[in-house]
Amino acid sequence: MLNSSRSPVSYNQTDQCLRFSCPERSVSAVYVLLYVCAAAVVLLTVCGNLLIIISVCHFKQLHTPTNMLILSLAVSDCLVGALVLPIVLIWTIESCWVFNRGFCISFILTSYFLTSTSIYNVALIAVDRYFALSNPFLYTKAVSVITVCFVVLCDWFVLLLYNVALQYFTGNLRTVLTCPRDCFLLLDEVWSLVDLLVTFVFPCAVIIIFYTLVFIIAKKHATAIRELNAQTRTQTSKNMTDSMRSERKAAKVLGVLVSVFLACLFPYFIYSLLGNVVEIEADSFQKVLLLVYLNSTINPVIYALFYPWFRKCVRLTLTLQIFRTDSELIKVL
């Protein structure tokens, strides 16, 4: 029996797949409403992340190392909304995989690559915030936009190679098991463990450890700010206080982003672990998988709630002011 860390669904007999058939669906108001809601979710995901991409790319004031990581996350989320989420929502509504085997293979490659890219983007954001807070002077000198862009490109390239190699050299591109109602990638026990460690355990450990350190440092900064305010009111101390407050605020907002991300990811992580021990229904795992992809929809909402610069950029974009001469120089912070 094969198990998968990506999909903890197992089948005792391959022949059972042949007896599955997609349930008949009658067109009803609820059925139409489900598709309307699905289209709204896809539109919100794509447009929300597209606004983040336009904002960071267009306005020069936002060309910072941290924002390059946010840009990378928005690109992966936007691609999830455009290429993965529509298929998953159709699959969920129909309770059936309605596409062919070739499309299933393409879907698996795309969804797993983009999911792992998003996870590592969040891990890089956690590392970036730690170094920005722990050693701001060294961070300013050593970390540049070009450096972060190079790291991000390497991250995307390595993860693409990993996912292609994993699925090719383990034979899954040729032997992927698809039932008429399901599309899951099956790995043996060894590769299941390797993939679980590389794709989830390692980046999640990095996220949790570094954000724990970030909040410890932020707490120390809060104490230092109170002491500076109590002892002196000079311009130097005021500038230092404002800088520390800005870094702490950025860390808190990104902390909300990371917390929501982990909340969406951990049910999938738990199901993946259980899938190697007990048999789990495909429908249950499919809903948990959908929660992972819906995180790409939630992220732009978080930016809109907590980032004034994002709200201002959205207003400038929707009112077409970005097409004005020198609009990229407009102050948004």
TrEMBL record:
Major location (coarse): membrane
Transcription regulation in keyword set: no
Recorded topology in the membrane: Multi-pass membrane protein
Family matches, as PROSITE patterns: G_PROTEIN_RECEP_F1_1, G_PROTEIN_RECEP_F1_2
Keyword Cell membrane part of the UniProt annotation: yes
Domain G-protein coupled receptors family 1 profile: 48-303
Keywords from the named record: Cell membrane, Disulfide bond, G-protein coupled receptor, Glycoprotein, Membrane, Receptor, Transducer, Transmembrane, Transmembrane helix
Any one Gene Ontology cellular component term annotated for this protein: plasma membrane
UniProt similarity note: Belongs to the G-protein coupled receptor 1 family.
UniProt name for this protein: G-protein coupled receptors family 1 profile domain-containing protein
Biological source species: Pygocentrus nattereri (Red-bellied piranha)
